């Protein structure tokens, strides 16, 4: 348990040491609980701001489709309690599914650049990588509350404040987030240690996967724009 707690801080500055400790004792329960708790708190606390932000975008989208005011009101009649419950359950389940899926993919691909890691070890390290993103979410949440707006950016998209974060370009720029980049670097370093391979091979694989993920996100953003 002591190593698991220490890893929560070490992952930010010494990812290789975290990977070494995980190679010996793959703890994953504590970091998974930690990211679930942070996500739960942030969804609940920032929901009013998120709800208002999404409501405005929904109204604009529905109006562009030619819907009447009565029909738009029908879409907006879902009670806040139901929305919070839906967002919370979706956020928690989504987090667990993404962690499991990412761990499985990285474990399967690890022999391409080195030796097979093992799902439990990859799962444990992935939890700490997602912990970095969760801390980023916590910081963004604090900024949201202090500024009174849901549209807070810690990515390259901050240099284009008028750009919608849901547009294809907005999605691409939002992917270049400070904490996402930090996570990618930590993942590249730790993956090299766990797979017993070089950092060059490790980072090549991680960056290619990241680029594919960004491309998929941008493609979905384009589809949303066309459907609206």
Q: Spell out the helices and strands N to C.
A: HHHHHHHHH
Strand proportion, as a percent range, falls in under 5%
Count of individual beta strands? 0
In helices, the fraction of residues equals over 70%
Shape: globular
Number of helices: 9
How many separate structural domains?
Answer: 1
Cα end-to-end separation: 49 Å
Identify low-pLDDT runs.
Answer: none
Radius of gyration: 19 Å
- Sheet of most strands: none
- Mean pLDDT equals 85
Structural class: mainly alpha
Quick overview:
Helix content is 78%, strand content 0%. The protein has nine helices and no strands.
SSE layout and pairing:
Blueprint: H1 2-13, H2 15-24, H3 29-64, H4 69-75, H5 80-109, H6 119-147, H7 168-175, H8 178-194, H9 199-227
Helix pairs in contact: 1-2, 1-6, 2-8, 3-5, 3-6, 5-6, 6-8, 7-9, 8-9
Describe this structure in words.
The chain has 228 residues and is mainly α. It has one domain. Helix content is 78%, strand content 0%. The protein is globular. α1 packs across α6 and α3 packs across α5. 25% of the residues are buried.
């Amino acid at each position: 348990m002591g190593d698991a707690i220490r890893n929560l801080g070490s992952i930010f500055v010494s990812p290789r040491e975290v990977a070494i400790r995980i190679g010996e004792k793959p703890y994953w329960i504590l970091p998974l609980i930690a990211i679930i708790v942070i996500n739960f708190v942030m969804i609940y606390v920032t929901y009013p701001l998120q709800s208002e932000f999404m409501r405005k975008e929904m109204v604009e989208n529905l109006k562009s489709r030619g819907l009447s005011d009565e029909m738009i009101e029908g879409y907006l009649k879902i009670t806040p309690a139901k929305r919070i419950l839906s967002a919370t359950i979706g956020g928690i389940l989504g987090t667990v599914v993404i962690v499991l899926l990412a761990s499985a993919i990285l474990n399967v691909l690890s022999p391409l650049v080195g030796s097979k890691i093992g799902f439990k070890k990859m799962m444990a390290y992935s939890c700490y990588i997602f912990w970095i993103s969760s801390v980023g979410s916590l910081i963004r949440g604090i900024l949201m509350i202090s500024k009174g707006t849901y549209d807070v950016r810690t990515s390259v998209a901050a240099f284009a404040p008028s750009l919608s974060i849901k547009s294809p370009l907005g999605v691409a720029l939002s992917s270049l987030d400070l904490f996402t980049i930090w996570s990618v670097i930590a993942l590249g370093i730790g993956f090299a240690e766990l797979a017993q391979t070089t950092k060059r091979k490790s980072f090549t694989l991680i960056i290619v996967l990241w680029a594919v993920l960004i491309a998929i996100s941008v493609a979905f953003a384009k589809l949303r724009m066309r459907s609206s």
